[in-house]
Amino acid sequence: MIKYFLSVSVFFLSLGFAQAQNQTSISSHPIQKGFGVNIHFTIPRPGELKMIADAGFKWIRMDITWSEIEKEKGVYDFSEYDILLNGLNQFNLKAILILDYGNKYYDNGMAPHSPEAIEAFTKWATAAVRRYAGNDILWEMWNEPNGMWEPKDDVDAYIRLALATGKSIKKVAPTEVYMGPATSGVPLWFLEACFKAGLLKYWDAVSLHPYRSERGDPETVSINYHQVRQLISRYAPSGKTIPIISSEWGYSSAWIEYGYTPEKQGRNLARSFLMNLSEDIPVSIFYDWHDDGVDADSTKPIDANHFGTVENRYYPNREPVYNPKPAYLAAKTLINTLEGYHFDKKIPTNNKDHYILSFRKGKKIRLVAWTTQQSETFLLTTFKGRFKVYDYVGKKLPNIKGDKNGLNITLTNEPQYFIPFK
Fold it and tell me: Are 32 and 270 in contact (CB under 8 A)?
């Protein structure tokens, strides 16, 4: 157990985690290492990965689908994933690869539940991990098994598969990071069943998809993280620190009936990323990289087409190769503005709807502030001097200057960045 724990600690250190007295200190984690997007391709278009990297993203999340590799029973073809991993390496991008879905040769293509199918899935997953070991991949066990488990949801069947896969992976590649269950939402009953069954012995992180309802503000996620941490603490093996990963969370820019626009989607990307930073979530993945379709020629609901940070149309002969949406600019602004900074604290106010976060790099401090309610002016009595101000997509706003009473800032539902003059 000690040797295993140290090997996992070394991996997380390579991602920017700091280890002290068997505790993971996310406060010392450079945040630019922590953000990414979901993708739906193995062969990237020219310029696509560069545009992802140019935003400051460090991660992609993608299915490594069983049926796409074992197309002939007992024979594996990883060639397309070789192309993807080679492309990621060129741009210093890392991968969360999701071990998921059925295969027509086993259990009629349903989620593996028979002994034969579980053995076949485990053998394939272990072969994938062995092939790509050493690439700092986060291996995620299934995608939303509390809603995408055919023929019907079955937590016990999921646990059997996850345990068999975890045991096999840790036997052949003990330093690889294995995590789950990538639930849709934060179903505490499902998580507790997994933890109680012993999966935390094999999982090195707990992954969640903490989507809010269409009306739900990103800030409501805090209570969910607190609840999950309590469960982890109750069931984790002694001495093992297990972080929470937000491996999928997004907003459609076409939830028109709920007042969503591309601008509101961008604001919520920034606010969800900032909340994750303040809640010690080391990796945050936004769904999705680009819009999935064009409304006029798609059979999907309109809102489902518009989760992307960039538009759907690809422009092969120009740079950038996609039109960025406010969500892309919001991510780029957040990552570039806070590059190398660490979350310091949430500055207390007398209003629970105010969010004023302090980030620190040595003696340097930068502030991010917003409110979940109506715009209002707020006096920060502990700050003086002159500040540059930028909005959530990087637009320069008028500078402000504090006086002997402090710094007056205007809080809106759009995060603003306050950078002290040198």
Answer: no
Torsion angle in degrees (nearest 10) through CA of 68, 71, 77, 78: 10
Residue 34 is encoded by which pair of tokens? Answer: 């922590």
> Distance (Å, rounded) from C-alpha 57 to C-alpha 96?
13
Residue type at position 123:
K
Q: Is a pLDDT exceeding 50 seen at residue 9?
A: no
- Least Cα distance to 191 among 249, 232, 238 occurs for 232
Q: Is 239 exposed, middle or buried (0-12, 13-18, 19+ CB in 10 A)?
A: exposed
From 185, 209, 382, 368, select the one nearest 274 (Cα to Cα): 368
Cα(309)–Cα(284) distance, integer angstroms: 14
Question: How far apart (Å, rounded) are the C-alpha atoms in residues 321 and 161?
Answer: 40
Instruction: Let me know if 398 is exposed, middle or buried by CB neighbors in 10 A (0-12, 13-18, 19+).
Output: exposed
Alpha carbon separation from 109 to 66, 75, 105, 370, 381 (Å, rounded): 10, 17, 7, 47, 62
Q: What is the DSSP letter of 299?
A: S
Residue pair 307/314 in contact (Cβ under 8 Å)? The answer is no
- CA atoms 63, 64, 68, 71: torsion sign: negative
Amino acid identity, residue 162?
A: A
- Please write the tens of the pLDDT for every residue from 359-383: 999 999 999 999 999 999 999 998 9
pLDDT band at 302 (very low <50, low <70, confident <90, very high): confident
Q: Tell me how far apart the alpha carbons of residues 287 and 331 are, in angstroms, rounded to a whole number.
A: 12
Measured in degrees and rounded to the nearest 5, phi and psi for residue 216 equal -75, 130
For residue 378, which of 412, 403, 345, 344 has the smallest C-alpha distance?
A: 412
- Name the token pair of 301: 């609901």
Whether pTM > 0.85 for this model: the answer is yes
Q: CB-based burial of residue 300 (10 Å sphere; 0-12 exposed, 13-18 middle, 19+ buried)?
A: exposed
Tokens of 282: 């080391």
